[in-house]
Structures are given as C-alpha cells and as structure tokens.
Design goal:
The complex is a heterodimer.
Chain A lengths: L1 H16 L3 H4 L4 E5 L3 E5 L3 E6 L2 E6 L2 E16 L2 E14 L1
Antiparallel strand pairs in A: 1-2, 2-6, 3-4, 4-5, 5-6
Chain B lengths: L1 H10 L1 E7 L3 H10 L4 E6 L3 E7 L3 H11 L2 E8 L1 H10 L1 H17 L5 E5 L6 H11 L12 H11 L3 E9 L2 E8 L11 E5 L3 E10 L1 E2 L6 E2 L4 E4 L1 E2 L9 E2 L3 E17 L1 E19 L2 E7 L8 E10 L8 E17 L2 H19 L8 E8 L4 E13 L1 E5 L6
Parallel strand pairs in B: 5-7
Antiparallel strand pairs in B: 1-3, 1-4, 2-3, 6-7, 8-12, 8-22, 9-11, 9-15, 10-12, 13-14, 15-21, 16-17, 16-19, 18-19, 20-21
Helix pairs in contact in B: 2-3, 6-7
The chains are: A alpha+beta, B alpha+beta.
Chain lengths: ~90, ~400
C-alpha cells in the first residue's frame, strides 16, 4: 500500500511540475518505427532472446516483442534498439 | 549512426560468438557493467555480437561467471587492418607502386578525342594535331593550350575555332569548322546601285548597261541588266549574270553644331569608389556607396576575374569609380565654335564612310544659326564602285 501511495504522490508531483512522467515514475518509453525498429528506453535487462521473440524486463512488468530476424542493434545503458520484421509489441504487467 | 560506425572502425572491434544457455544473463551483465554491445544476432545455438576491443577481458570474465563459451569470430577495424598491412610488406609496396603508377600515368595525355569535326573528319584533325605536337603520350605539364590551339588553327585553314580541354588523361579537341558560303553559281543576276550617286564611269563585262556617265542614280536602281542580246538574230534576249563596275561619286553628309557658350566638364578630383563581388553574373557583395554623391560625374569601371580556371563559375570583382565633374560655361569665339561643330560633323560623316574608301573632296557648309549656335554641314565625296549583285527574281529594282 505504501508503494502505491508513493507512486500516486510521484505522479501528482510530476503533473504539478510538468515533468515527463517516465522520468519521475521510472517507466519505460517505447518508440516503434513502422514494423522495422523498436527503441526502448529505461529497461531492466533482457529476459529472453531468440530470433523470433525478445522479452525485455521493465518496471512493473515486461515488454514482449515478436517478429522475424530480430536483432539487438544497440544495447547501451538503459536503451535497447531492436530491428527486424516486428509483428507485435506486447506489454505484460 | 555513421559517426558511431566510423568511431568503432577506427578504435577496432571484435565479433564474438557466445554459446551457452545463459546468453541473456551474459548480455544483461555486460550491459550493467557499461560494456557497449551492438549488432546482437541470435542464432540457434549461439549469439553473435560485436564489442569494443577494450571490453574483451571483462567479457571473458563474464563468460566464465555465466558458464558461457566465448570465442572471437573476427577482428575488425583499423588497428587490425593496419597490423595485417604491416605484416604484408609486399602488399604495401604493391599498393604504393599502384598509386605511384596511377599518379605517373595520370600526368600524361593518353587519349585524344575530337569534337565538332563534321565535314573535315577526325583523321584530318588528328593529323593536323600531330603536326603541331599534340599526340597521345605527351606530358600534361607544360601543355600550352592557347598556343597549341592557335597553332592548330593556323595549320588547318578550314577551322574557324579550336579549343583544347584536358579531362584527366583525355584531351578533347573541340573544333568549329568554317562555314563557307556556297560557291557563286552562274545564275542570272543584275547589277543594281548599292547607294545613291552620280555615275562617272561604267565598265561593262557582261550584260547591258542601263545607265550612262553623268546620270544620277538612286539606291536599288538597275545599273547593268543581266541579259545577252544575240545581236541581229530575232530571238528574245537570254538571261545572264551581269558583270561589270559602275563608278560613281557618292556623298556622305554629317551635321554638327556648337554653341558659342559651351559647357566644359573638368574633374574636380573628388571621387567615390565601390567594389562588387560578382559570382556567376550575380552580385553577392558590395562595398562602398551605391548612389553617386555628386551632381555631375563620369564613371570608370574595371573588371578583374578571380579564380580563373579554378572555380566552375566566373568570380569577378567589379570596381566602379565615380569622378565628380565641374561644368563651367566656356565662352568660345566664332572660329573655335566653328571648329568644334566641324569636328562633330566630320565625326558623323566619317562614321558613314565605308572601310578602305578615301574621300576625294570635302565640302564644309557653315551657317550661323539663330541664337548662339554655329551649324556645320560636312560633306565627304568619294568615288566608289556602287554596283551590287541582285539575284534575278530577288525583288524589283
């Protein structure tokens, strides 16, 4: 319960100060370019990686990218760029 | 991204294959340690990735910790390329020789192309070019294009213009052939007067004279008709090409006037200059005043071309200098005014004079006009052949 209250407070503060929520709440930010590129910021690591499916851990859950010939183009710090033929991006909490 | 790729190439990188069940753990730990990984490809049994050379020791340690097997597939980038190159002296020497040979050979004219030879033929131009010293294998340095073009022009009289262009090892000889008028055919034609005049002499070669000495003729009037009368035979005259000369006195008049009070302009010594930088006909920069700060002035412009033959577009500096003029009324005597008017009238008359014709007689008519003006009529008299060919059917006469 304490965690939920803290989170609610953080959200209110972010709204009040007009700060980006993903920074205040430590949330992932996902940018998808067509079906060929997917850029995920603020991730927590790769859980599973095959050429057809990548599971990436994020705060409060995981993001599952499926497709063909998936390649991790860059992996640096908290940013991961996936390229290939993306067929779905799924969020699981 | 290309910047990153260049940086990675210059620093050198390794293509590494990781085998083992915990490849994801390996990647996450490497990421956590701040070791940059890129282009991670997952195969069936292994993951292939690229990493910087510096991070290899850390990656080996990580592989041991995660129970993965790691091996280098390929070493890429400039440091590895350079070390391979250093070991292969022969390749280096060969590369040097190749570049040297390329440079050496590019200092020669290896090919010659002729553009614009339509009727003369390439072989004829090439033969003429060879005679003036243009041949494949000559050195590009010391190739005096202007002198050689002039020499080629002198050598081949059928050419009107020659331009030489060097493009790499190719020399392009651009030529423009002379466009000669078609040879005069023996078609029937008359001789008509090219200008007004008083006929002095008629020299008939072919045809029938239609004017006699002492007659005045108007421009376009028929002088010698292009016909041959077959004497006493009762047939109609045959058309022919008229030949002959008709000499006549021709007058050219010029008019000039001068006031007894003439304004005389003298430069005061004050001047205003401006400079413009013109690129490809467009002014891009101007330094100095645009308008003239003087009431009366004359202008001198100078042009200087910069970067001749370097820039593809002409770059010029145009200097404009405006000199202030002081206009003063200058009292002239009647004689001086007459001389001035006569000079002006003469200039006007002389301008009309055909080239190479000398006046035989000069007539000066001076009239004192109303007010303060002296008027002069300057008449030049010449003796000229005024006969001009007119093709039959080419208009009336």
């Amino acid at each position: 319960m304490a965690g939920k209250e803290a989170r609610s407070l953080q959200r209110s503060l972010a709204d009040f100060l007009e700060l980006p929520r993903e920074i205040m709440l430590n949330l992932p930010r996902l940018t998808v370019v067509g079906t060929m590129q997917c850029l995920l910021e603020n991730h927590r690591g790769v859980i599973e990686y095959t050429a057809g499916r990548i599971r990436i851990s994020v705060t409060d859950g995981e993001i599952i990218i499926t497709g063909d010939n998936l390649v991790i183009r860059t992996l640096a710090g908290e940013e991961i760029a996936v390229e290939g033929k993306i067929s779905s991006v799924h969020y699981e909490s | 991204m290309p910047v990153m790729a260049v940086r990675r190439f210059l620093a050198g990188y390794l293509v590494i294959a990781i085998q083992g069940a915990a490849a994801e753990k390996f990647i996450n730990l490497a990421c956590g340690m701040g070791l940059p990984l890129w282009d991670i490809n997952r195969g069936r049994e292994s993951a292939v990735l690229r990493a910087g050379v510096d991070s290899f020791t850390d990656l080996c340690r990580l592989a041991r910790r995660t129970g993965c097997r790691l091996h280098i597939v390929r070493k890429a980038g400039w440091p590895f390329f350079y070390s391979r190159l250093r070991r292969r002296r022969g390749l280096l020497v060969g590369l040097g020789l190749f570049v040297g040979a390329l440079y050496f050979l590019s200092s020669f004219i290896l090919f010659i192309r002729v553009d614009g030879a339509e009727t003369l033929g390439r072989e004829r131009i090439m033969a003429a070019a060879e005679k003036v010293g243009l041949r494949p294998g000559m050195l590009k340095t010391g190739l005096d294009k202007e002198r050689l073009a002039a020499a080629l022009l002198l050598h081949e009289p059928e050419l009107a213009w020659v331009g030489l262009n060097v493009r790499g090892t190719l020399l392009v000889i651009e030529v423009v052939e002379k466009n000669r008028p078609p040879a005069a055919v023996d078609r029937p034609a008359h001789l008509v007067a090219a200008k007004d005049g008083l006929v002095v002499d008629v020299l008939l070669v072919t045809g029938e004279a239609r004017v006699r000495p002492g007659e005045t003729v108007k421009r376009g009037q028929l002088l010698i008709e292009g016909v041959l009368s077959p004497g006493t035979y009762p047939v109609s005259p045959l058309p022919a090409r008229a030949r002959g000369e008709v000499w006549a006195r021709v007058w050219y008049a010029g008019y000039g006037e001068a006031a007894l009070q003439e304004p005389v302009a003298t430069r005061t010594g004050r001047r205003a200059a401006s400079w413009s930088l013109v690129v490809d006909g467009k002014e891009v920069l101007r330094v100095g005043r645009v308008g003239a700060p003087f009431l009366h002035f004359d202008v001198e412009t100078g042009k200087q071309r910069l970067t001749e033959r370097i820039a593809p577009v002409p770059v010029e500096i145009i200097t404009t200098v405006k000199y202030e003029l002081l206009l003063q009324a200058h009292e002239l005597s009647f004689e001086t005014a007459q001389e001035l008017a006569a000079e002006r009238a003469k200039n006007q008359a002389v301008l009309q004079l055909p080239a190479g014709v000398e006046p035989r007689h000069i007539d000066l008519q001076v009239t004192k006009g109303s007010g303060e003006l002296v008027r002069v009529r300057y008449v030049l008299e010449t003796l000229e052949n005024i006969a001009e060919i007119q093709e039959a059917g080419g208009g009336g006469h």
